[in-house]
Amino acid sequence: MSDTSPIAVFGAGGKTGGEILRQAIRRSVAVRAFEHVLPPPSARIEGIEYIECDVLNDAFADNLEGCRAIISALGIPLNPSTVIQPPPLYTEGTRKLILAMRETAIRRIAVISAAFVEPQPSIPAWFELTAKPVLHNILQEMRAMEKTLERETELDWTAARPGWLLEAPYTGEAVISDERLAEGCLRCRHADLAAGLLEFICENTWVRAKPAIGRPEQNRFEDITALKDELGIA
Predict the structure, then answer these.
(1) Are 118 and 179 in contact (CB under 8 A)?
(2) Among 73, 140, 143, 154, which is disulfide-ready with 11 (CB 3.0 to 4.6 Å)?
(3) CATH superfamily ID and name for 7-231
(4) N- to C-terminal Cα distance for the chain?
(5) What is the pLDDT of residue 111?
(6) Are 196 and 149 spatial neighbours (Cβ–Cβ below 8 Å)?
(7) Would the pTM of this model clear 0.90, i.e. be above it?
(8) CB neighbour list of residue 165: distance below 8 Å, 6 or more residues apart
(9) Mean per-residue pLDDT for 157-174?
């Protein structure tokens, strides 16, 4: 498949997915955006091909024809119902992507997992004690997704493991390390994660690997008050 062939981006309507689209356009990388609900024409990014797709219920292999790779930015919103019983976007959704890849002979995929699927020695103890219990069921889904990819010997996969995601401008200063976050890198900006995912696919790096992505941030973004506000913890 040519390097000019499009990359299929699933979950393109999310925070990281939207950043992937914007950065792809700036880099002249062709993408095909798959969204559960299509944005109105006025909200679409010029130069992007949009496809409406419910990954869990639709057949979409035909829409992947001509694509060279997949980036899955599928994610689950944090609210009481999804925290208690998350929909199987990471497990069943990834399984559906893999099946479609087999039909279309696509070998390359990058997905979003999380650094916190395993212990992270560099992060504060209060985060381990406060946030991880809240996210337990979602993290279990992510662990299972990673195991599914590991069993796929014919696929070139990457499971990106960002830190605690932050909605803030792109920096280009993210630290990428093998499986565990670097010291002092609790958080990861959506925009920096998007840049990493595009790099992994376009430069074919971190294949069959789990790169952790984060960067040091100001205390106001990393303290327990910020955590409680963003997770809705009283």
Answers:
(1) yes
(2) 73
(3) NAD(P)-binding Rossmann-like Domain (3.40.50.720)
(4) 51
(5) 98
(6) no
(7) yes
(8) 15, 16, 187, 188, 189, 190, 193
(9) 96
Give the start-to-end residue ranges of the domains of the chain: 7-231
Q: Which residues contact 37 (CB under 8 A, 6 or more apart)?
A: 13, 52
Contact 66, 5 (CB under 8 A): yes
φ/ψ (deg, to 5) at 61: -60, -40
Site of tokens 């087999």? 102
Angle at 24 between CA 184 and CA 95, to 5 degrees: 75
For residues 202 and 195, what is the distance between their CA atoms, to the nearest angstrom? 10
- Span 58-103, pLDDT tens digits: 999 999 999 999 999 999 887 888 888 999 999 999 999 999 999 9
Looking at residue 195, its amino acid is A
DSSP characters over 120-169: -TTS-HHHHHHHHHHTHHHHHHHHHHHHHHHT-TT-EEEEEEE-EEE---
> Are residues 89 and 51 in contact, defined by beta-carbon separation less than 8 angstroms?
no
